[in-house]
Design a protein that fits this description.
Chain lengths: 454, 280
């Protein structure tokens, strides 16, 4: 054999060694999950369709929202055959990464679907989204029909950068009435009741709470309510803006209560490997493997769609998170998404921007769309829908959500959406560790003080 | 002949590498403007989180190597036989390599689900562990699934390696009275030296940058139990919007890959005279 294996292979090895990490980085830059509709990836911004007025629009996939968003786009396209909107859908967790990457790379869609708050603020800081303040001033009827509270998360430094859309989504404590009947217990009225229920369900081999813990924001909802009920809306806001607020006695108490609930087997076995995107957490509730679940109000529609006879037969119960004895918080306060938000990319052409604004004006929260939201058990952020809510088969739940949204003295925006992406990542990372019991409440507070208020 | 490869390598290897190097000395949120920031990213990257990620990465690399190498050598040697049933089995063994990593990870995630998975479905308590929810178990599962996918590939390398060994060596061993086991340890294994090096380098460098299966299976969790360096880079950059720090982590990955690949090369290259086929 005349070939020296060492010299020929070393080059190959080097190439491999250098190439692989970079390929990884390059691929990641292209997004971890491709668009589900072919050919739309490069259609954003000023690429390709410049000047034609055909706008692009990315939003979340999955029931029930995907069908409603698609229907609105289809209605718009039917009415405006020359200035259509091309839609592309993504899974929730994948979308959060994909949209940031696309915007950073100048490949943003014309219409950017989002949660407002800190994410929107980072787009604004980079001049990536259109200021819609004057447009709203010219179109007061578009603005005045929406819940005023929905504009908070769309506003940065006094200017409106997004069109509030879709539904108001407080976090709700759901419970399976059939499981409660089977075990012979009553729904909790205070947090102390919850602690009493935990061993009773565990004794029957039913998980007290379902939780999709791998998604992390699911765990966060628990901490949000603990802090809100213990320390009130003031503490809720301060922990994400004021350095050291996590070390407040009420914060430490909330963090400790979280770990106590984990230690008491309050959450379903294997919660840290369950993802919310797969809806497995909700399946645990409607199949009766878990008794209760803290989740967004959008989960109601998912349980109707996937749970068979569970919701129609009256199996699902719901309530606002109960008060905690000695807590300073208002029992009516809540947290969640005050709406969803549609921004326009500043990199889009004038034609595309016009199409997008026309879409906002004519199809976003149109009567037809509102009806669809209500049909899936969600409350659109439009004033004066009570008659429609009352006519729905889901009127009990809808009125409950409408009541929370309109009566809450404080409707907090979820921390991970309100904070900057960097702070949100740190928060979620520490929350995962807190639930895994790998850090103590004090360590959590120390870690967060390095991030918050910087 | 090498020109197209060279152009590809420069275009997709060297130039991005330089870009990442430059980014590691900057501060960038991935959306706005890029600001030069000197050593700031490097300073903030050197924290306990990085050490933990390094530890996890090396642990997964070492376990992958320990699990994959013996399995692959045995399977490869077995498949090198010319019997027809072995050819048939070879096709079966090769199937995992043809599956997409993401699909594979989703499948395993479903099978291992403690509430809806295989163990719960069949009522076997041993199988219904909290596989992906406990740190040590999750690392074991990751190593197993990665190995399940890549053992076929390494078996293929070993199969080719074993088939290259001259039959006369085995004949000589037989004359000397060596049984099959003795033949394996005294002829096959020494002759496979370079094949082992090739396969090990691929395993080690591959494990360093392993991403997709872990991302889908555990997303680095529970907490940070399976957060490898590659995952840390991704999460820091694309979820935490800290592209400068992510680039610094990427550079550390590149350096590690280089050093390990070179070390493995040294290991094999020291006594070149031992090349077994000389004089055949």
């Amino acid at each position: 054999m005349s070939v020296d294996p060492t010299t020929t292979t070393r080059r190959t090895f080097l190439k491999f060694a250098v190439g692989v990490p970079l390929t990884g980085a390059a691929l990641a830059a292209c997004g971890s999950s491709g668009p589900t509709q072919a050919g739309a990836g490069g259609g954003g911004g000023n690429a390709g369709s410049a000047g034609s007025g055909t706008a692009t629009y990315w939003f979340l996939s999955g029931p029930p929202g995907e069908a409603i968003r698609t229907a609105s786009v289809n209605r718009f396209n039917a009415a405006n055959p020359n200035t259509k909107i091309k839609a592309t859908t993504f899974q929730n967790d994948a979308y959060k990464t994909k949209i940031k990457t696309a915007i950073g790379a100048g490949q943003a869609p014309t219409i950017i679907w989002g949660w407002g708050g800190g994410g929107l603020k980072s787009y604004v800081a980079a001049n990536q989204v259109e200021d819609l303040t004057s447009w709203f001033a010219q179109n007061p009827d578009v603005k005045n029909r929406l819940f005023p509270a929905s504009f908070g998360a769309a506003t940065v430094d006094g200017k409106i950068y997004a069109m509030p859309a879709e539904t108001v989504q407080p976090i709700v404590l759901y419970y399976n009435k059939k499981v409660f009947d089977k075990v012979g217990v009553q729904p909790p009225k205070t947090y102390a009741d919850i602690l009493d229920l935990v061993p009773k369900f565990n004794a029957q081999n039913i998980a007290p709470f379902s939780l999709g813990g791998q998604s992390r924001w699911t765990n966060m909802m628990w901490l949000e309510f603990f802090l809100m009920r213990l320390g009130g809306s003031d503490l809720f806001n301060r922990v994400m803006t004021e350095k050291g607020a996590w070390a407040d006695p009420d914060s430490i108490k909330g963090l400790t209560m979280t770990q106590d609930l984990v230690k008491a087997n309050g959450f379903v076995k294997g919660f840290s490997s369950i993802t919310a995107d797969s809806n497995a957490d909700q399946a645990l509730l409607y199949t009766g493997k878990a008794a209760m679940m803290l989740h967004g109000s959008w989960s109601y529609g998912i349980q109707v769609a996937n749970g068979g006879q569970f919701v129609p037969s009256g199996g699902l119960g719901w309530m606002n998170f109960p008060p905690i004895d000695g807590g300073k918080g208002e029992p009516g306060d809540t947290v969640g998404n005050p709406g969803q938000y549609l921004s326009i990319s500043s990199k889009a052409t004038e034609g595309e921007k016009t199409t997008a604004k026309n879409f906002f004006k004519t199809q976003v929260l149109s009567d037809a769309e509102n009806k669809q939201w209500i049909d899936t058990g969600q409350v659109p952020i439009v004033k004066g829908t009570q008659a429609q809510l009352n006519a729905s088969k889901d009127k009990d739940f809808l009125n409950f959500v409408y009541g929370i949204a309109s009566n809450a003295k404080f409707f907090g925006q979820s921390w991970d959406q309100a904070a900057s992406p960097t702070a949100a990542e740190s928060l979620l990372d520490n929350i995962a560790k807190l639930f895994q019991l790998s850090i103590s409440p004090q360590q959590f507070a120390d870690n967060m003080s390095k991030v918050v208020g910087q | 002949m090498a020109l197209p490869a060279l152009i590809m390598f420069i275009g997709f290897g060297v130039i991005p590498l330089l870009g990442v190097l430059a980014l590691s000395f900057s501060s960038w949120d991935g959306i706005g403007a890029i600001h030069p920031a000197g050593l700031q990213s490097w300073r903030s990257v050197l924290n306990p989180g990085l050490l933990h990620a390094l530890k996890v990465t090396f642990l997964i690399t070492a376990l992958s190597w320990l699990f994959q190498t013996p399995m692959s050598i045995l399977l490869g040697t077995f498949l090198a036989g010319r019997q027809r049933y072995r050819g048939f089995l070879a096709v079966l063994y090769f199937i995992p390599l043809l599956l997409s990593s993401a699909a594979l990870a989703i499948t395993y995630k479903a099978l291992l689900d403690p509430n809806f998975g295989l163990g719960a479905g069949l009522g076997i308590p041993l199988l219904s562990q909290d596989w992906l929810g406990r740190g040590n178990l999750a690392i074991g599962v990751v190593v197993f699934v990665v190995s399940w996918q890549f053992i076929p590939f390494h078996s293929l390398i070993y199969q080719a390696g074993v088939r290259q060994i001259p039959v006369s060596l085995y004949e000589a061993a037989q004359i000397d009275g060596a049984g099959r086991i003795r033949q394996f340890f005294s002829v096959t294994l020494p002759q496979l030296k370079y094949t082992i090096l090739t396969s090990s380098t691929l395993i080690v460098v591959g494990s360093l940058t392993f991403f997709d299966i872990i991302f889908v299976l555990t997303a680095g969790g529970p907490a940070d139990a399976t957060r490898t360096l590659a995952l840390d880079m991704y999460i820091t950059g694309f979820q935490g919007n800290l592209m400068g720090q992510a680039s610094a982590i990427a550079m550390i990955l590149v350096l590690l890959g280089l050093v390990l690949a070179l070390l493995l090369q040294r290991l094999g290259g020291r006594d070149r005279s031992a090349s077994q086929l000389e004089g055949m």
